[in-house]
Amino acid sequence: MIKPVAYFKPGSLKEAVEALQTENAWPLAGGTDLLVNMRNGVEHPDLLVDIKGLEELNVFEVDGKIIIGGNINLNFIIDDARLRKVCPVLGQSALTVATYQLRNRATLVGNICNASPAADMAPALYVMEAEVVVSGPQGERHVPINEFITGVKKTSLKKGEVVLRVEIPNPKVGKTAFLKKQRYRGHDLATVNVAGIANPDTGTLRVCIGACAVTPVLLKGTDELYKSIKDVDELADKVSELALQSISPIDDVRSSAEYRRDMTAVYVKRLVRTICS
Amino acid sequence: MIVEDKSKLRYVSKDIPRKDGVEKVTGSAVYVADMVLPGMLYAKVVKSPYAYARIKSINTSEAEKIPGVRAVITGKELNYKVGLYVVDKDILAKDFARYQGEPVAAVAADSELIAEMACEKIKVEYEELEPVMDPREALKPDAPLVHPDLGNYSYMKGVFQPRPKTNIPHVQKIRHGDIEKGFKEADLVVETSFYNPPVQHVALETHVAITQALPGNKVLIYTSAQSPFTVRSLFSVCFGIPLENIRVKVPYVGGGFGGKAGIHLEPLTYVLSKKAGGRPVKLMMTREEEFNTIPSRQGLYSDFKTGVTKDGKITALEANYYWDAGAYADYGVNVGRAGAYAGAGPYEVPNCKIDSYIVYTNKVFGTAYRGFGHLEVLWGIERNMDIVARKLGMDPVEFRMKNVLRQGAYTITGEKITRSHGHVYDCLDAVAKDIKWSGYKSEEEREKEKKTGKVRGKGVALLHKAPAMPTFTSTAIILKFNENGSVDLMTSLTDYGQGTYTALAQIAAEILKMPIERINVPWDSDTSFTPYDWQTVASKGAFMSGNATIAAAEDALRQIKEIAAQVLKCDVADLVCEDEKVYLIHNPDEYLEYKQIVNGYVYPDGTSIGGPVIGRGRYIAQGLTNLDPETGQGLPALDWTYGAHGAEIEIDIETGEIHVIRLASAFDVGQTLNEGLARGQIIGGVIQGLGSALTEEFKFSKDGKFLNASFVDYKILTAKDLPDSMEQYLIENPQHDGPFGARGVAEHPMISVPSVIGNALYDALGIDYFRLPLTSERIYFGIKSGKKEYHD
Amino acid sequence: MKEYTKELNITVKVNGREYHESVPANMTLLQFLRNKLLLTGTKEGCGIGECGACTVVMNGKTVTSCLVLAAEADGAEIRTIEGEAKGEKLTALQESFIKYHGEQCGFCTPGMIMSAQNLLDRNPKPTREEIVEAISGNLCRCTGYEPIIKAIEAVAEKGNR
Prior knowledge:
The structure holds three protein chains of three kinds.
Chain A: E1 6-8, H1 13-20, E2 25-28, H2 34-39, E3 47-50, E4 60-61, E5 66-69, H3 74-79, H4 81-86, H5 88-94, H6 100-103, H7 108-114, H8 122-127, E6 131-136, E7 139-144, H9 145-148, E8 149-151, E9 154-155, E10 162-168, E11 175-181, E12 192-199, E13 204-210, E14 217-218, H10 222-228, H11 232-246, H12 257-276
Parallel strand pairs in A: 1-3, 2-3
Antiparallel strand pairs in A: 4-5, 5-10, 6-7, 6-10, 8-9, 11-12, 12-13, 13-14
Helix pairs in contact in A: 11-12
Chain B: H1 21-25, E1 41-47, E2 53-59, H2 61-64, E3 69-74, E4 81-82, E5 89-90, E6 96-97, E7 103-109, H3 112-121, E8 123-128, H4 135-138, E9 170-176, H5 179-184, E10 188-196, E11 208-214, E12 218-223, H6 228-239, E13 246-250, H7 266-275, E14 281-284, H8 287-292, E15 299-308, E16 314-326, H9 332-341, E17 352-360, H10 374-392, H11 396-403, H12 424-434, H13 443-450, E18 454-465, E19 474-481, E20 487-490, H14 500-512, E21 519-520, E22 525-526, H15 541-567, E23 575-578, E24 581-584, E25 587-593, H16 594-597, E26 599-602, E27 608-612, E28 614-620, E29 641-652, E30 658-668, H17 675-694, E31 725-731, H18 753-765, E32 768-769, H19 776-785, E33 789-790
Parallel strand pairs in B: 1-14, 12-13, 16-17, 20-21, 30-31, 32-33
Antiparallel strand pairs in B: 1-7, 2-6, 2-8, 3-7, 4-5, 9-17, 10-15, 11-12, 11-14, 13-22, 15-16, 18-29, 19-20, 19-28, 23-24, 24-25, 26-27, 29-30
Helix pairs in contact in B: 10-18, 14-15, 17-18
Chain C: E1 7-14, E2 17-24, H1 29-36, E3 55-58, E4 61-64, E5 77-79, H2 92-99, H3 109-122, H4 128-135, H5 146-158
Parallel strand pairs in C: 1-5
Antiparallel strand pairs in C: 1-2, 3-4, 3-5
Helix pairs in contact in C: 2-5, 3-4
């Protein structure tokens, strides 16, 4: 059961930052990870700071750069027609997270703050080169997504800080996709998830793999392969080889490391074929 | 009782909505989970973190100091043993904790939260012991003993035989014909081995009980249980309290599937209530405890050696079953017994030898689960049949057709198949036609298909099951007329979703010749008010209580006619009942309405005769015998229900994912009692079986820790995981002693679903799989191995 | 420094009726509905948002009430299974569940109906795929889902309510 805890719903960012500086205070947004962890006795906050009343976290913009506030839930991301046009990979990823009911609560920012290696929203944000905008006692700072997630359940958030929003500064047109291997069709955590973007005009190919290392793995050197290899099947093979060199999956209750490796190869190939042809 | 003219049936066979529909769709049905009694306390338990450990000490002093804590209890102060067949379990572990998740201490407090926080303050000192996690390891002479005291336990004599100083609470033997002669007659002998992991029932309402120790050595129990009378009798034995002092009430139950048969949380809540001065105590399992503390379906290793002639007749079958009973025998010993006498499948096997070992290990223990051992043994049996057919170069449907039980044949316990039995071959025929079975695809076809990345396969599998129950199992029904002529049907059978109450109301309405709307089946079952029923298990409810309902309705009609005969001045034989009226057969204008009679008939001058009409009906199992302890020969089966599944699947050969395209199922139900409910039960069972086939399994670490005790990593199927299409065939070759010719079909739908998927997998890939579940990972590694047989 | 409280006063509208209650901050919306308001139609099946038995509609959106704090529901409008039928008059969906045997043990049924009704409210003519997506967060161990899908499809064909 959830143990006794204090609750505060600040009306302003200033109040929120102040509250978050108290001993063992946690921000509460969708709560779909935090409340589970509290019920299971994994986390023991003394104070929950409900940030859902903060206007700064309700922002959502798709004109020019994409801005997704900390309170934007995943169903909103799936349903927004403009976002679907500009950056479909976010909705595609979100659709695989948990269940419909949970997505009415779960936020994109919460998904990355939870920093699970299998976070389904992370690979898309990596390939879109998203930035996390953080507010804290020292003001605002922008953190690239791959510097924001630092390890298993670890982020670069400091005491008293709260994530305001995620920004995608350059949602340049490019073909994107997200694919997820799970144990069955019902809601499940990823065995492997992959996201990618390819832009033939700029010669950019970015591929990110989740659930196969302590953090999502953004492949390095994909641009060179993309520029030099014209045959899509050959490209898919080469990117997949690169992927296998870059990941370090483990055996756990969901999958063996070997299956994760082999599925990474399959899914990266499928991804590359989807976005590069 | 057989239906001569089905067109005359008004209620039986029809698709009638369930009696409890409105309560359930409005959320007004009250489950034990929802109940609060005045002064009620909430309990929580402390569980062993080790698979096997000696409990050195338990310090509860910190917990006792917490305000709101009303009782703290440990195993040391409890001198009671509980057990269905082998009395081997303490209410709370004492001296030894035998599985990870076993309760070792408990707290009752003013709130669940206080109870949980108090449990966290209880300090238990353990000495970790080497656990034994595999039943085959547990059989070795030097294996750690899970129950060093097995020789001192009491047990049901004449049926079970625990072996002291071993991990074996029972071995069920079947010896039929001459096994050596059978193998000599064989042209081909095939050996195969299979495995099923333990799995959970996953009823949506977890186990919950509220118990109050009352003055005068009396007890009141509200429990989410399948069998109020069995709870009462086991409780009585455990505490030495007379039956009449114990009242067990069962309201709506949120699913059971066998997991709520027997006795579970009632004894613990009772001792807590007693210690808390008689306040009622409620204990509800969390979902994690439901996996980790409450019993499950046993795992099974099965080995087969099959002898066949060139023309495809089975001459001999030798099978060894090794059941992973976990830490306590519970229903496991009886599951192993049922698995043995059904352990050759629905086939004529003239020479058969089966040894079914029930083996203790340090896992969460096994219990009854829908299918009662049959899904487990038939996983191997039906995969084995395909493999044997193939080695013979024979089509698997043809091979089965040659060997299925037909009238005149004998089962492996010596039971003769009569015209009252169903037809296995009708079921097989129905599903083979449905999936357009035309034989395995060739290796060339497979290779060609593989190039597309997807490959399809088809398969069939058969099944059978009879109730596993004591020879003298009985039940009773009371039909109590209300003053307006309507009827309350009283039963202690529990309807936790099967729809039995509705079926019984249909039967009563049919015989009583009155509208179904006027038959009320009140919830709850209550041992102090509703008549005896052994248990709601074994797919015997509609059969036995249906027969009792017919008897009760006939009894009521006889009483009604006796009064009417006096009033109408005629012989009882001259009276006919129709539309809630009893009338003279030669003059239909002369009649009495039931409501004029059922509370006593009043003459115009005010004098009266008769009185309240109460119909009484009973049924006791007919013709069953105990099995011979050495040969297993005897008559264990009230009614065999036969069935078959046919499936078409598609495999993604790069990932190993299975997509089920079609799943067709056929059962010889004898007579359909309610078509809508029957189809619903079949679809539900098939999908539950598909869970066993594809995703469900307990995972343990090497040192015996349960790794997936939650819905995060134990996956039951969702609405997204259904086959593209399903079909159900209700075949009706009547059971002569069934109600209107009906047989049970509650458990059967999930049996052999894993087998049919396994057989279709072979057709698709040309690879034999031997272990469940058939996860995409397992299938993928089978493909990757390049082998024709994949044993991991 | 500000003092933060573990007990709060909340105002919640449930099935059209307003409640003012004092709740501990660690109380979930599910516990609030069941234990405080005694609306026990909403069930707990897992406590971690995986099974959907506790599904209610909060401000027009389905949520698993085991993962919402009562405090978070301050000012919200909640719909539970108890608010679906109007007196003796069942909704079209409830009638359809009975007709197509969408319920067996009944424990998942309230949450299932809330998910399905919410779908029909936002999308009166859902496809089978949309139905499946909407109810796949509601686990059912009895029915095999197919009868539930049929019950929802039948309402969609005939028109909601």
